[in-house]
Amino acid sequence: MAHDYVSSVLLLLILLIFLSQRTVSSSIVKSLPGFDGPLPFELETGYIGVGKEEEVQLFYYFIKSERSPQEDPLLLWLSGGPGCSSISGLLYENGPVTVKLEVYNGTLPSLVATTYSWTKVSSIIYLDQPVGTGFSYSRTQLVNKPSDSGEAKRIHEFLHKWLGKHQEFSSNPFYVGGDSYCGMVIPALVQEISKGNYVCCKPPINIQQGYILGNPSTENEVDNSYRIPYAHGMALISDELYESMKRICKGKYENVDPRNTKCLKLVGEYQKCINRINKALIITPECVETSPDCYMYRYLLTTYWANDESVQRALHVNKGSIGEWVRCYREIPYNHDIKSSVPYHMNNSIDGYPSLIFSGDHDMEVPYLGTQAWIRSLNYSLIDDWRPWMIGDQITGYTRTYANKMTFATIKGGGHTPEYKPEETYIMFQRWISGQPL
């Protein structure tokens, strides 16, 4: 009898542990170490389990719109990499706080409020994905590596579970956004959500409003090949070298046939000209993160901040769930199984989803020339031809709009992500989501 009772209690305990592990855990964060005083916005952090046994625990930061969270759009913002933490979006690109740029003295780096947060007009979920990124982790050894198409499915599952726990946001206009490598995953994710709305998943996700991508990876060969004409246009290589490369390499600068020794020699000369250029923003010096004079020094400060025990406690990170936090896990096991996201853009525009594609025009990682080339390949007619877009009486960039509800915009002087021109990208986003022309 006693044995049966003990067995029942054990079973009940196992069941309770199993159920507690399967629930969505979330916490409200009122203050953050390094930030002076209470947070002037509503922050929630948490985990959502995805996969059959919910073995993958995806970590997120959720910030409510500072204007009208009941009506304002809900935006899911992803960082690229793959393997870069969404803290990059929150602290550098479009969030309400940023890391104060000052020389590290052994104490916790400081956070300060920003003036350009997209949370002024929308609620944002910043998601650490794929598993192994930021604070996201797996409770078991992964059988399959994460992949582009797999992430589109996982993030879709995450969204349904998140909205299930936050039903007050299920009817808000919904957008997906991100930059850099997200250009491979987001168009597939939009298609996944669209299919799910018709086929399987209730309540539907209100994605009629569309998606937004900055300097998006789209097709590696195209993106990378356009670095050469871009380098020429920016006076980084000579006319003669560019003309020779065009003639001898015939526009193929990636994976050159080893027998084409003339082309290989020219590619070597090109590399010599650009190998000290900071590709993310060509007008800034190439330097190491540890140099306090360098823009990227903020990444080092963020690493100190996010690895601090008091910070992880404040963010309600599961103790012992990850080793050292890294901003970008460059060696993340990952299967790049979408070779081109152009077909997904095509399907999404056929389905009527609007999109805003923007490019910092001083980015050489994914130069705007390559982005314009794949947009042209969609073969849509122009509704609004190339023109400057302004903030006050200043030209901020150039834009054009296509019949497939796709808007393309450049950010003058901008780099690979919105962090280089945050005020300008905020105004661009705010105009676009409110249906105004840029």
Give an overview of the whole structure.
With 438 residues, this protein is an alpha/beta fold. The protein has 13 helices and 14 strands. The termini are far apart. It has two domains: 25-220 and 307-433, Rossmann fold; 222-274, no CATH class. A hairpin with a 5-residue loop joins strand 2 (43-50) and strand 3. The model is unreliable at 8-23 (pLDDT under 50).
Secondary structure elements and their pairing?
Blueprint: H1 2-22, E1 25-29, E2 43-50, E3 56-63, E4 74-78, H2 87-93, E5 97-99, E6 111-113, E7 123-127, E8 137-138, H3 148-165, E9 174-179, H4 182-199, E10 210-214, H5 220-225, H6 227-233, H7 239-249, H8 261-274, H9 297-306, H10 309-314, H11 342-350, E11 355-360, H12 368-377, E12 382-391, E13 394-402, E14 406-411, H13 422-433
Parallel strand pairs: 4-7, 4-9, 9-10, 10-11, 11-14
Antiparallel strand pairs: 1-2, 2-3, 3-7, 3-8, 5-6, 12-13, 13-14
Helix pairs in contact: 3-4, 4-11, 7-8
Give a brief description.
With 438 residues, this protein is α/β, with parallel strands linked by helices. The protein is built from 13 helices and 14 strands. The longest helix is centred in the N-terminal third of the chain and has 21 residues.
